[in-house]
Amino acid sequence: MTGGDALLADLQARLGDFRGRLTANAPMEKVTWFRVGGPADLLAMPADEEDLALLLAAIPVDIPVRVVGIGSNLMVRDGGIPGVVIRLSAKGFGSVERVGETRLRAGTACPDKRLAAAALDAGLAGFHFYHGIPGSVGGALRMNAGANGVETRERVVEVHALGRDGRRHVLTNEEMGYAYRHSSADTDLIFTGAVFEGPSGDPSDIQAKMDEVQHHRETVQPVKEKTGGSTFKNPEGTSAWKEIDKAGCRGLMVGDAQMSEMHCNFMINTGTASAHDLETLGETVRRRVHENSGILLEWEIKRIGEFEPGREVEPFLGTVDDPSVEGR
């Protein structure tokens, strides 16, 4: 019996009324947009918030728990993920509804693009940037996702979450501790939904901004490739792609992993790249940029899981593990 099978059997014995799905040794390459990564010991998909609370209360405290979204900015390492990976379902956590003249409530499995569409329908401005982010609300909340000069923190009123013990929490905007592509909210909290607010706007103006976002994304980003979006955060005072380009890394390859020729802050899997290839490429870029300009790029892609034995990737002046629990 594998570790995943044993964990499945143990949780099934504890979860008499669980209505969701539990999968042992779940292949994570089917989840990530990079299409790489080893298996998760156990992948859990609770049916709704009540089901999630039941699951969390049943997981022993010594078992690690990770949360993933739709996998659009996530790299799972080739050795897989120990413990339990929780993926919130669109059916149980993907709703979005108007809850006031200027407010929307969305579940964390709601795609960012759907949140933008709901805001358009409600005549609420300031959500157009979500139209171009290929992730879900949960990841946007965790990493303060932003684009086109707007960030998630500008729209958030409150965030709903469950702790590892299954208890419910409500966090204010201030308690989320937002900074550039970062939230300092407790990483043990699993976000389940949030209330957003935006000013009233003219639907034609909102649609025009969404169209601009879509046009920009389709013309300058490799959206049809196996990619994870922006690989590195923009350093203060410059853009990551400019520094990558100046360091001669546009088109740089390690195996089938490549920094896109179209947008060199996008890493792509051109064929059968492994997570090892992708992470090695990223660390090579970080080193070359630092040698060229003295700038130390920070990963925006969320990297989770373990390396295969003997195939570890040495980080360049940084930590191996990303502390974020949640990827988009």
Keywords for this entry:
328 residues; UDP-N-acetylmuramate dehydrogenase activity; Uridine Diphospho-n-acetylenolpyruvylglucosamine Reductase, domain 3; FAD; 5-stranded antiparallel beta sheet; globular; alpha+beta; NADP; disordered C terminus; cell shape; 27% helix; 4-stranded mixed beta sheet; oxidoreductase; Uridine Diphospho-n-acetylenolpyruvylglucosamine Reductase, domain 2
What is the fold's blueprint, element by element?
Blueprint: H1 3-14, E1 21-27, E2 39-45, H2 49-58, E3 65-68, E4 74-76, E5 81-87, H3 90-93, E6 96-98, E7 103-107, H4 112-122, H5 137-143, E8 146-147, E9 150-151, E10 156-162, E11 168-172, E12 178-179, E13 182-183, E14 190-197, H6 203-220, E15 226-230, H7 240-246, E16 253-254, E17 257-259, E18 266-269, H8 275-293, E19 302-304
Pfam family, one: FAD_binding_4
Function: Cell wall formation.
Protein name: UDP-N-acetylenolpyruvoylglucosamine reductase
Number of β-strand runs: 19
Query: Could you spell the SSE succession in H and E letters?
Result: HEEHEEEHEEHHEEEEEEEHEHEEEHE
The CATH topology of the domain at 94-204 comes to Uridine Diphospho-n-acetylenolpyruvylglucosamine Reductase, domain 3
Helix percentage range: 25-40%
Count of separate DSSP helical elements: 8
Instruction: Please state the oligomeric state of the protein chains shown.
Output: single chain
Spans where pLDDT lies below 50 across 5 or more residues: 322-328
Q: How do the strands of the widest beta sheet line up side by side?
A: 6-7-14-10-11
β-strand percent reads 15-25%
CATH structural class of the domain at 94-204: Alpha Beta
GO molecular function: FAD binding; UDP-N-acetylmuramate dehydrogenase activity
Subcellular location: Cytoplasm
Cofactor: FAD
Catalytic activity: UDP-N-acetyl-alpha-D-muramate + NADP(+) = UDP-N-acetyl-3-O-(1-carboxyvinyl)-alpha-D-glucosamine + NADPH + H(+)
